[in-house]
Amino acid sequence: MKKALLSAACLGTTTVFAQVKDTLQTKNVDEVVMTASRKKENIKEVPSSITVVGEKQIQSQLTVNSDITSILQYTVPSLGTNSGQTSNSGQTLRGRQVLVLIDGIPQSTPLRNGARDLRTIDPSAIERIEVIKGASSIYGNGADGGIINYITKRSKTDKKISGVSQIGLTGQPYGGTLGVRASQLLTGKINKFDYTLSLAYERTGYTKDGDGVLISPTYSIAKMDNYNGLLKIGYDINENQRIEASYIGYSSRSDLNVGLKTGKYGITPTIGEGIGKGLETTPQGTPKNHNIRVSYDNKNLFAGTSLNINLYYQDFKTVYGYSDTFFNGGQSNVISQKKGARINLDTQLWNSPNSQGEIIYGADILNDQTVQKLEDGRFWTPNMSMTNIAPFVLAKIDLFKKFTIKGGLRYENIKVNVDDFNTLSTLKSDGTFTKSIPVAGGKLSYNALVGNIGVRYNIEPYINLFGSFSQAYSINELGRILRTSTSETIKNLETKPIIVNNYELGATGQLSSWLNYELTSYVSTSKLGASFVQSPDRALMIQRSPEIVYGVEGFLHFTPAKWIQFGGSYSWMEGITSVKDDGDYSAKINNSRISAPKVLAYVQARPIPTLSIGLDMLHSFQQNRFEPNAKTGLYAYGEGYVPEYTVFNFKSSYEVSNNWRLSLGIENLFNKVYQPAISWWTARDSDFTNALGLRGTFMIEYKF
């Protein structure tokens, strides 16, 4: 296998295997450099699985759909299928909540998860996506199922200026669906300075299903303006020292004004019809997501020691649609501000021909202030301010260039200040409203020592074995617990954190010059998990009980000739829980977290040097894990039967010259009328919606 530089997690909690499928467009697919984590290392030293979605692959998927949640569902085996909406509810990773980052800056809001963290950046600004699968404490709170880190583009040229210009149209074979998209990338280097500037804009049209009917306006991506800007400036002080600063801004706002016609679950889809009521005061979407980062690197701070410091700030707001479930109605939002620092030192202990040893140590500091309110100012959750100071240490030993051992510890020290507040009066299933009660806030403290250990043994190129144990520590959905409080003080509420133990075993290798594979099995346990369940009055509540999630996943990639490649992946998982904490795990975690088995398959060909064509397939199997209520015949939330479905996407590109390229992508190639999984497992009339019908994207690209 060719030498590849990869970056491992600071704790070794998870390490990496690069799964890159764009070999027909990249000369050296094995040579992937990871920069999001804390230490570069060879691929043969990593003891667990990660998916890396490369720049060419992102661009290829962007030709079909610019929605990042769609790109991820087609490239990450163990990630749940997307909803086709602005919400990424149900798109869990290995059955648990995922922590989303941009260049290491947290985008998720674990204190009040609003399910809008995946759609926080335009794909045109992304160089690659690193998906660390399994519980991880690398970046702190919220990574029960793993981490998705968007690594933004950087300057890779010695020219003073170079760039890529793109403009395109999207549309369906129905009126009103035409959309436009444009992006501009500029990069360059001037003496010791380098820069990257990326701008993108997209205006979507109406969205319709395969029958040409308007899709439900709830969480709709229709009639939306999306803006994205990236500015990154770096300065090489000398050969050992570098400083870099970046700003990333994202905004999405919808002016869709379509009425809602509620259907019947399992029979008639909920659709858009007529004119909306005009009750919204703020456009739906994510009006702002500002990220500022400053980093400093010193490769030789003192004898055998390097230093990396990252300082960051994030300012985020997302707004939901009007709802009459609040007393007097209203629109809710989630507002979050984060400030943090990551300090990392790496010291080489020894370096002999047959063994090497090093120690990585430092600290992470984070302040996260999150609140959920209505646009009229009423609080749905109180103001929550979390401060997390987490020192860590990792030891790594490599023996005979075949055997790697890693082990680390991280101490989580978390304090949360909660303001006094009054609960919001909301609609109950019987048509009455809950009573608003005053709740006294206070201080909550959490402390824990989490650890990891991993080993990898590279026997031969065709068989490399790895295994790891890792832990995650998170205070997940504290805001939802508080907003439904029936106690007048937070001290009486169950707000204990979630500690997840993740066990993973896998094998990977290259059987020949044209075939590589990976097979992974995993088990994750938590003594006190958190799942949405339906109470007797059909209201949603959080169930805290012991959990076990287990599963398998794997992939095969074939490249029998230079002009063609094909392959696929399979993922399966199951989740069980002991509701009464009595050792009886006969109850299952519902489908809002446990996704149906999924097969991804692709074929990519280049019949002539200037033409590339490809076909992607996603097959989601049926999921029939629960029985409906014997009296009412209704499924509880999250327990609905999910039928299987298969979708094909077509993508192609033609290089007119060295500078010009045309591309055409078709989503849902056969215009299949189906419902995404979330329409079924929610088991609610209002959520039973059809998926997007056939839609094409035509783009023109100019490189200079």
TrEMBL record:
Signal peptide stretch: 1-18
Annotated compartments: Cell outer membrane
Cytoplasm recorded as keyword: no
The UniProt record lists the keyword Lipoprotein: no
Keywords tagged on the record: Cell outer membrane, Membrane, Receptor, Signal, TonB box, Transmembrane, Transmembrane beta strand, Transport
Gene3D superfamilies: TonB-dependent receptor, beta-barrel domain (2.40.170.20), TonB-dependent receptor, plug domain (2.170.130.10)
Residues covered by the TonB-dependent receptor plug domain: 43-147
Highest taxon of the lineage: Bacteria
First-listed, main subcellular location of the protein, grouped into a coarse class: membrane
SUPFAM superfamilies in alphabetical order: Porins
Positions of the TonB-dependent receptor-like beta-barrel domain: 237-669
Pfam families named in the record: Plug, TonB_dep_Rec_b-barrel
Membrane topology (UniProt): Multi-pass membrane protein
Membership in a protein family: Belongs to the TonB-dependent receptor family.
Protein name: Iron complex outermembrane receptor protein
Organism: Chryseobacterium sediminis
